[in-house]
Amino acid sequence: MQTEARVGMAAATMDSGAAAAAARRYSTQQQQPPQPQLHHHQPQLGTVPHLLAGGVAGAVSKTCTAPLARLTILFQVQGMHSDVATMQKTSIWREASRIVYEEGFRAFWKGNLVTIAHRLPYSSISFYTYERYKNLLQMIPGLDRNGGFGADVGVRLIGGGLSGITAASMTYPLDLVRTRLAAQTNTAYYRGISHALYAICRDEGVKGLYKGLGATLLGVGPSIAISFCVYETLRSHWQIERPYDSPVLISLACGSLSGIASSTITFPLDLVRRRMQLEGAAGRARVYQTGLFGTFGHIVRTESLRGLYRGILPEYCKVVPSVGIVFMTYETLKSILMELASDD
Predict the structure, then answer these.
(1) Domain of life here (predicted)?
(2) Rounded to whole angstroms, how far apart are CA atoms 229 and 55?
(3) pTM of the complete model
């Protein structure tokens, strides 16, 4: 009995000692809370650095994948006029060889200056507004951080869609000019960004700068929504399951998968957008007279459903590195800028 009592007293003493130690640890943690402080620094990246990270990420990504982007545009507009209908049975390799032979290797980056001029503000606005829309949406009851997985997905989808629509609306004329410059082959009607803007306003009026805007907004909203949502969902899950993997690898892989998902779903709208942007270009006759849905119907009637997916293969080849690079570059730059801000 005495032995048992001593054991019991020792156990009680150990319990009380453990309790005291736990209390001391808790007190120390309360006095020095490292985790909330890190979390507090996360949103403190200023507006200018945030815009800079998004813009540079978009410009780097587009420059790296410009050749595939031009091939995608050329495939998308085939069948629209007689001089591009000859591409119907061509392959990616054959068309790439034709560009090198007829226009030179630098032609793969035709229109890339206007691409960067468009992508810098577009990516800046889309990344920046996505974070802001997310913060606003999380203030709505049921969509806050305690709303669970469904609320997180809803916030990402809605925030991504709104950010895409905002960015596309503000930068659309540059996107149209980029498409027209990239779609030129042997005959160059537009001699650069300023000339293209002037010629479009002269030939088609100011409204000509917004041709295809409806199809763009209808496509870019779901595209950016899916891209951001898939990326953030995959990334958060990956970081939970494999917390020691390289952040660069995670961003690259999750970004590539999100690009495939968004492109597969929204590619027909992107194709219609490109065709509407080229409507009446260089003084050509109008092909589609009935707006967005009429253009869809015309393509299906004349080229079958497969016509809506012309250029999907080069699009996949482009989007896997492109979206992966943009998210990887954005996350890397954001981390660097936050470290610099914390050092200051």
Answers:
(1) Eukaryota
(2) 20
(3) 0.69
Where do runs of H (alpha helix) occur along 184-246? 193-204, 213-241
- Within 10 Å of residue 130's Cβ, how many Cβ atoms? 24
Question: Which 8-state DSSP code applies to residue 80?
Answer: S
pLDDT digits (tens, 9 = 90+) for 106-118: 888 877 887 888 8
More confident residue, 46 or 176: 176
C-alpha Rg value of the chain to the nearest Å: 26
| HSE (side-chain half, CA atoms, 13 Å) at 9 | 6
Length of the chain: 344
What is the identity of the amino acid at 117? A
265: Cβ–Cβ under 8 A, 6 or more apart, which residues?
222, 223, 226
* Cβ atoms of residues 319 and 68 within 8 Å: no
| Cβ neighbours, 10 Å, residue 151 | 17
* pLDDT value at residue 238: 94
Taking the C-alpha atoms of residue 103 and residue 238, their distance in angstroms, rounded to an integer, is 44
Using the 8-state DSSP alphabet, how is residue 344 labeled? -
- The alpha carbon of 58 is separated from its chain's Cα centroid by a whole number of angstroms, namely 8
Give the domain 47-343 fold: Mitochondrial carrier fold (1.50.40)
Q: Which residue has the tokens 């420059």?
A: 63
Nearest to 258 by CA among 170, 130, 132: 130
For residue 288, the model assigns a pLDDT of 64
Structure tokens of 14? 């150990």
- b/e sequence 273-308, b meaning 16+ C-beta within 10 Å: bbbbbbbbbeeeeebbeeebeebbebbeeeeeeebb
CA nearest to 273, candidates 210, 337, 189, 326:
210
In contact, 315 and 267? CB cutoff 8 Å: yes
Is the distance from CB of 333 to CB of 53 less than 8 angstroms?
yes
Collapsing DSSP states into helix, strand and coil, what is residue 93? helix
